[in-house]
Write a structure and sequence with these properties.
- The structure is a single chain.
- It is built from four helices and no strands.
- With 85 residues, it is mostly helical.
- The protein has one domain: 434 Repressor (Amino-terminal Domain) (Orthogonal Bundle).
């Protein structure tokens, strides 16, 4: 990844995919449809599908609405990272 900013773009895409996969897993564990979760979170099914696929980066407000729909707590944390080599 020699292009400037490519690593940052890759990391942002990876995080969006991981968030979407986590929400999808939680939804499926509960036996919910995308439509059911979308309605509970105040969004459209198509927007939820894009999010679960990692195609969009959600806002904190959206994550809060999804957490509320799951009766879960949204936790955001910072982890120390290793210095760049």
């Amino acid at each position: 990844m020699a292009e400037p900013g490519a690593v940052d773009a890759y990391d942002a895409t990876r995080r969006a995919f991981e968030l979407g996969a986590t929400v999808r897993a939680m939804r499926e564990q509960r036996g919910w449809t995308q439509t059911g979760l979308a309605e509970a979170a105040g969004m459209t099914q198509s927007a939820l599908a894009r999010f679960e696929a990692g195609g969009t980066v959600p806002t904190l407000a959206l994550l809060e609405r999804i957490a509320h729909a799951f009766h879960a707590q949204l936790v955001v944390r910072f982890d120390e990272s290793s210095p760049a080599a």
